[in-house]
Amino acid sequence: MWVHVNGRLVEESGAFLSVFDRGFLYGDGIFESMRAVAGVVFREGRHLDRLGRSAAGIGLALPLTASGFSAAVRDLLERNGLRDARIRVTITRGQGRPGEYVEAYGPPSVVISATRFEGVDPALHRNGVRVAVARRRQIPPETLDPAIKSISRLTSVLARREAREVGAFEAILLDGDGRLTEGTVSNLFLVLGGGLLTSPAPAGGLPGITREAVVELARAASIRISEEPLPAGLLETADEIFLTNTSWEILPVVRVGESAVGGGVPGPLTRCLLARYRDLMRFECVADQGWEARS
Fold first, then answer.
1. Nearest 5 degrees, angle CA 136-CA 262-CA 201?
2. 22, 86, 149, 160: the active-site residue
3. Which fold has domain 122-286?
4. What is the distance between the alpha carbons of residues 266 and 261, in angstroms, rounded to a whole number?
5. What does the pLDDT read at residue 288?
6. Per-residue pLDDT reduced to its tens digit, 75-90
7. Is-contact 234 192, C-beta < 8 A?
8. Residue 184 pLDDT
9. Fold equal for 2-116 and 122-286
10. For residue 32, what are the CA distances in angstroms to 29, 131, 206, 290?
């Protein structure tokens, strides 16, 4: 595979960064994950806007404009012959020195990679997944703004490992007050009484692009949706639960720990929203028109 490294397309085996890169030394950087459908990046503009906000949040001047990033992604997809792909843009503050927390001695490092999109096992969408509430809490917003897609992911890695140890697919993170926030790599939605509940973004988690699409779809279908702080106890009473992110799309949760969610199978609203979300991607990417034009 070819990757885009600091303005050049190079083969994966020849892609190198300095061992003193601040991303490697300190996790000092940001990233963005995107999905291409039929060669078109789904909601690319919104992803790049969020990348810009993440950069501003850590005081990092981006080395490319939005159109520059877009062109680099197109070149990368074309070189690799990819139409349906998962794309990751990673930007660090550049070269530094061990023990030097403030100074960056080089320009930002930019790596853009793409792989063929395969998604999760289709059986997970058919049958649902188990989640576990992690012992580790979400990093407080006062420490790190949840809206920043930081490459510092150790908290998420450890929480996800904790979940895997008990046979769960994903870990759900609570805030310091014991309220629901998000998963380690996903946004969280609950269905209760025919309506949707989700934590507010960014206070309760990352403002995900898939999350945003689900909110739009729900409102277009006149499904009641509330974005508010959610007590953890709602996991026990929810009729349905699902997770969202770029790769998982809308993934049903059928068990929280040892307790079944609803009837222990993916619920009707989750299945409906998944179908509508996939329809939305086809219209925006394949037909190159918005959902609004269809309706």
1. 45
2. 149
3. D-amino Acid Aminotransferase; Chain A, domain 2 (3.20.10)
4. 9
5. 55
6. 999 999 999 999 999 9
7. yes
8. 97
9. no
10. 11, 24, 12, 22
Q: What sections of the chain are H helices per DSSP?
A: 22-26, 44-57, 66-80, 122-127, 154-165, 209-220, 234-237, 268-281, 291-294
- Tokens 């930019």 — which residue? 110
In contact, 89 and 110? CB cutoff 8 Å: yes
> Would residue 130 show up in a list of annotated catalytic residues for this protein?
no
Distance in angstroms (rounded) separating the CA atoms of residues 27 and 107: 16
CATH of 2-116, one of 3.40.630.30, 3.30.470.10, 3.40.50.300, 3.10.100.10: 3.30.470.10
**24-58, pLDDT tens digit by residue?**
999 999 999 999 999 999 999 999 999 999 999 99
d(CA 18, CA 104): 12
The string of pLDDT tens digits covering residues 217-271 is 999 999 999 999 999 999 999 999 999 999 999 999 999 999 999 999 999 999 9
Separation between Cα atoms, residue 121 and residue 123, nearest integer Å: 5
- As a whole-number percent, the residues of the chain with pLDDT over 70 amount to 97
pTM confidence score: 0.93
Contact 133, 162 (CB under 8 A): no
Q: Where are the domains of the chain?
A: 2-116, 122-286
